[in-house]
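for the writeup, i need someone to sanity check this before i put it in the appendix. the sequnce is what the collaborator sent (i think, or maybe the updated version? ugh). structure was predicted straight from it, no edits. if anything looks off just tell me and ill rerun, i have time this weekend
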Amino acid sequence: MQQDLPLNIFAVGDTVRLIELRQKLGAVHAVESVTLPYEIMPAAAALEGYDLLFDLNLDDDPSRLSWYAPLTGKILLACSVKKTLLQLHNSHPGDVRCTMIGLNALPTFINRSISEIALLNDTYTAACDDLFKYLQWEYLVAADRTGMVTPRVIAMIINEACFALAEKTASMHDIDMAMKSGTNYPYGPFEWCDRIGVKNVFETLEAIAENYGEARYRICPLLKEKYLLQQPFY
């Protein structure tokens, strides 16, 4: 990447995440995107012409790694919340020649002041640091674990709020207001769940529970019901 020049970026993701990514990138860089669910898969040769690649939903469909794996030297920022970066990497049957960086790319977490990322190992540190300095993004490196850090914390708060609501401890509105007034969080748990997406919250908790098998990750039946019915809280 040549300093002081805008990047030519290719991004894949659902509509909400792509909008948030464009807000984060601003108007400096050129972004071409494929909105999920997609119909046309780009050829690997076409992707060679881009400076930087994003797949904001790769942990929903790791098979798309086959698009990027042959691209030697290209950097791929990929969502690694529901599946770790290592799981994504190992899901591909052949060599992965691109440089993969995990990203917390769930809705509401992309356009934040600090990006949460994960690396496969320390050999990627220099390339990562150069990229984020070029983008002028601040970042924190989290361990490559299911749920990363912030998504796990917020998903567990949402899950506990669901238990409180199911037990009629307080109303949904009161729980949301109590959290916003008592913390620095921008949303209450139910409002935040709707913004992240009930599906994303449930599947993140499900992946964490499967990985760790601890009772504290038990998913509230109310949240599971909303997930199965594909219903938001509001």
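Residues 8-141 form a domain with the Rossmann fold fold (CATH 3.40.50.720). The first helix runs from residue 15 to 25.
thx in advance!!
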